[in-house]
Amino acid sequence: MLSPHLRLRHLRCFLEVARLGSLSAAAEALHVSQPAASKTIRELEEILGIALFDRSGRRLSLTAAGRVYQTHAGTAILDLERAQRLVRDPPKQRPRVRAGVLPTAATGLVPHAALAFRAAHPEVLIDVMTGPNWLLLSLLREGQLDLVVGRMPQQGNHEGLSFRRLYWEKVVPVVHRGHPLLRPDWDYGELAHYPLMLPPQGALIAAAVGNWLHSVGIDDPQPAYENVSLAFGREVVLQSDTVWFISEGVVRPELESGALAVLPIRNDLLGGPVGISLREGGAPSPEAAGLIAAIDHAAIGLGA
């Protein structure tokens, strides 16, 4: 328990003596007399029950206990000064917009929109959260997010929400540039001979991918991986013959750079709408409305 006899003057005097190594110099810095400074240090050592300074030399030097006390006393004074500043002059709250971003919009659409919005509104903090669809939509309903950008919510998971479509986006099978299946005459049945990376069951595109594989005769696929993360999926595909079924937007930069390639398939229905989900019954804040406008502009031409 903190001693009731301890005062701020004890801490300030101790820290000055420790810093300057001299009672007289510390007294001058604190605008008190040397006897008063000496008395204050004696009181502190009596309160603590231990010597804080070695007085055997010309300069006062800290004992081992004194060095420990200096570290924590200095931190305590800094914390008290900071608390005083925050109470007297509280920082102004910056306006912010809180956006949930699903993987399909996280690599191109939202970063481009965020940069444009930031250029026009540098005072606004853009708070971005990524995660699974169910989590982001739950946070949107609870008011912890202002909007969610990504695939349209599944039936049964859109209560209390509205969805505005931006564009249609395909799901594509992607491979590295030298993959054996990258030839005009490849057959869908050959997919069974290569490791597959499929979306996990909770992902919005999982059902569409499963239905497509069933339509081409692969009724019970046994994936090597379940994943929608760009960082993991890109490295596995680049270093193996894995075929990754993923929303085109997730890998668009890799496709445009030529790092990855799409296996040609004859099914444009393997995909779905990408857009913005909002809470029903309330207008977005001015900051959220500004980011939505930037997203609308960045989406022009996507999914064409």
From TrEMBL:
The Swiss-Prot or TrEMBL record describes its family as follows: Belongs to the LysR transcriptional regulatory family.
What is this protein called in UniProt? LysR family transcriptional regulator
UniProt keyword list: DNA-binding, Transcription, Transcription regulation
Any single Gene Ontology cellular-component annotation = protein-DNA complex
- According to the lineage, what is the superkingdom? Bacteria
Record organism:
Paenirhodobacter populi
- GO MF term set: DNA binding; DNA-binding transcription factor activity
Q: Which Pfam families match?
A: HTH_1, LysR_substrate
Concerning InterPro entries, the annotation shows: LysR_HTH_N (IPR000847), LysR_subst-bd (IPR005119), WH-like_DNA-bd_sf (IPR036388), WH_DNA-bd_sf (IPR036390)
Q: What is the lineage of its organism?
A: Bacteria, Pseudomonadati, Pseudomonadota, Alphaproteobacteria, Rhodobacterales
Using the record's annotation, list all stretches that form the HTH lysR-type domain: 6-63
